[in-house]
Write a structure and sequence with these properties.
single chain, mainly beta, Immunoglobulin-like, 4-stranded antiparallel sheet, about 55% strand
Length: about 120
């Protein structure tokens, strides 16, 4: 059984994070990983990034701003127990404003998956 689950991310106004495929190698990409036992991760879908220009960059950057959803498809083995399971993960990002980037951080995330 495959179960899609949304993780909603909300950035404060004036902030952006690099997309999963930043414009330059030195930029820190947004990355989501899961500890999903007994599930397996089949796919992680990020939204389409925005191309935005900032004063500190000569070319547009591939970024996420505001609020957005990351959808993960989990596969549950046939023998997985029914009911709610809490899955934990890590969201690695680097938050920036128009004038400064902050050190990369990793946020712990949790979502509930229900098997019926």
């Amino acid at each position: 059984m495959e179960t899609p689950v949304k993780l909603h991310v909300k950035l404060n106004p004036g902030y952006h994070v690099n997309s999963t495929k930043p414009a330059d190698e030195y930029l820190i990409p947004l990355k989501l990983t899961w500890t999903a036992e007994p599930f397996t991760v089949k796919a992680i879908a990020f939204p389409e990034p925005r191309q935005e220009r900032y004063a500190f960059s000569e070319k547009p950057l591939s970024v996420y701003t505001g609020g957005f959803d990351i959808v993960t498809k989990f596969h549950a083995p046939a023998q997985a127990p029914k009911g709610e399971k809490i899955i934990t993960g890590k969201l690695r990002y680097q938050a920036c404003t128009n004038t400064a980037c902050y050190p990369p951080r990793t946020a712990e995330v949790k979502i509930a998956v229900n098997l019926y």
